[in-house]
Amino acid sequence: MPEMLRERLIKTPEGYRLYQQERAILEATELICKIMDDAGVSRSQLAERLGKSKGYVTQLLDGHANMTIRTLSDVFTALSRTLHLSDEGQDALQRQPIQVALVVFAADIGSYGEPPRWPTSLALAPPDSRRTLMPVLE
């Protein structure tokens, strides 16, 4: 069986580092886009909430801008969500290629004064989705 690109890429420390960067960017932007879709928030509306231009938001969501943790937090706050990070060891990547090494959770913080709704579990995304895991809010 031919070696997949992913396997060739992660063989070297530099390749593994680059793979993890791109994977994290993809997961973060897909989660933001899903939250925006679910909430009916356009790029223009997000830009307005952030006090930025629509072009800035487009660059963030197209993966062309380097999002810092502060930027991610600002975006999640503008979407009435909170950002939480967790990790998995490198062995998880070797065991399950579809598993992720960084899972980004979003809690629905709702209206002012209400307690946040935390994800109760993770569900596998539909097969046609590029995401592998998604938080489940109840």
Walkthrough of the structure:
The protein is α+β, with helices and mostly antiparallel strands. The chain has one domain: 434 Repressor (Amino-terminal Domain). The protein contains 6 helices and 4 strands. The strands form 2 sheets. It has a two-stranded antiparallel ribbon. Helix 3 packs across helix 4. The chain starts with a helix and ends with a strand. The model is unreliable at 95-107 and 120-125 (pLDDT under 50).
- Secondary structure class reads alpha+beta
Q: Assign the CATH architecture.
A: Orthogonal Bundle
Main beta-sheet strand count, sense and barrel state: 2 strands, antiparallel
Mean pLDDT: 74
Count of helical regions: 6
Relative helix content: 40-55%
- Radius of gyration, in angstroms, nearest whole number: 16 Å
Compute the number of structural domains.
1
Instruction: Assign the CATH superfamily.
Output: lambda repressor-like DNA-binding domains
Name the poorly predicted regions. Answer: 95-107, 120-125
Query: What sort of overall outline do the alpha carbons produce when their principal axes are compared?
Result: elongated
CATH topology (fold) name: 434 Repressor (Amino-terminal Domain)
Q: How far apart are the first and last residues' alpha carbons, in Å?
A: 42 Å
Q: Report the strand count.
A: 4
Strand residues, percent: 15-25%
The main sheet orders its strands as 1-2
Provide the CATH top-level class: Mainly Alpha
